[in-house]
Amino acid sequence: MHPQVISEAIFSSTKLRDLAYYADDTTLIFKMEVREALKLLEEHQIFVNCIVTSPPFYGQRDYEVEGQIGLEAHPSIFIDTLSDVFGLCRSILADNGSLWVNIGDTYWSGKGQHRSGESKQGARRFGLRPQDKKGDGKWCVPKQLLLIPHRLAIAMQDDGWLVRNDNVWRKPNPIPDQVRDRCSMSHEYVFHFVKERWYYFDKNPVGRPTDTGSILPPLDTWELPTVRGKRKGHSARFSEELVRIPILTTTPPRGIVLDPFAGSGTSLAFARKHGFRCIGIDLKEEFCELTKNSLLEVVQQEEEENQSE
Ligand SMILES: C[S@@+](CC[C@H](N)C(=O)[O-])C[C@H]1O[C@@H](n2cnc3c(N)ncnc32)[C@H](O)[C@@H]1O
Questions:
Q1: Three-state DSSP state, 137
Q2: Gap from CA of 3 to ligand 1 centroid (Å)
Q3: How far apart are CA 142 and CA 110, in angstroms?
Q4: pTM above 0.85, yes or no
């Protein structure tokens, strides 16, 4: 299918550049609430080819910034909020574009605030999480797996998205969870959503070569190690390998990749390394700075490679 790629001009729009935290000829970073930034992009008639993102997971982290998503009192509010965000994404996604969403699940604990003082747990529990409160007695009862990824995917279908895959990211090195009466969690999902039946997809860069020389599409189970610790200053960073299949299969040459919850800028750095243009959004200035620095590192590497040629 013929890819829709917009002109270079949007990256030189002074209006957008003035509102951006960082801008250059191929990159825009916005330090804004995600819905505000998406509306701004729509107003400027921007459209993107590939959206790849890992939104905050429900009740997992406190990013210590006002307006953050992820700590809603009830999981249904969280699902509604994410559906709204992706509804705005839909308006700026090319008709033949793709949206990839990495999302993991959460248990309702209902135990109350963690008080053991154990350092590992203390780091994971930032205080009173929504799922530590008394629940609604239905979805939210102690020990219940909330099925957040599945609920989000169903809400997205109801909003008109086509679900192409519920890719499973299998982690060979999951964070040990201290449970005795269920299996330990070692996977997250990376949903592939599209707007229309026919969309841009090039399996060749990441496909599986056969003995006959043909290329099969990649599998829907991806075994990739997690990024551990607060590397590069962000505790929920994903690995560049997680965005390899999404970005390389669904971004046409010179296309635009958007990460609406950019964090430390992993997807933007990967996109830029592969010659794509990119747009990132994050509410927190510290993370926008990390993204800017990751991109400047890529630019510097490119310059060094060009000089040595
Ligand atoms: C799971 S992290 C993304 C991590 C990223 N994939 C990486 O590799 O670094 C989610 C991000 O969403 C941001 N965020 C949370 N609520 C937001 C909001 N309402 N608007 C914009 N960004 C938000 C957080 O600051 C956080 O950096």
A1: coil
A2: 28
A3: 5
A4: yes
C-alpha 230/C-alpha 76 separation (Å) is: 29
User: pLDDT by residue (tens digit) across 141-200?
Assistant: 999 999 999 999 999 999 999 999 999 999 998 888 888 899 999 999 999 999 999 999
Nearest ligand 1 atom to the CA of 290 is 9
| CA-nearest residue, atom 1 of ligand 1 | 56
Distance CA 46, CA 255 (A): 12
Expressed as residue numbers, the domain containing 174 is 8-106+145-308
CATH for 27: 3.40.50.150
Q: How many domains does the chain have?
A: 1
**Cα 144 from chain centroid (whole Å):** 25
Q: How far is the CA of 33 from the centre of ligand 1 (A)?
A: 10
Identity (one letter) of the amino acid at 136?
D
> What are the tens digits of pLDDT across the range 268-289?
999 999 999 999 999 999 999 9
- 131 falls within a domain: no
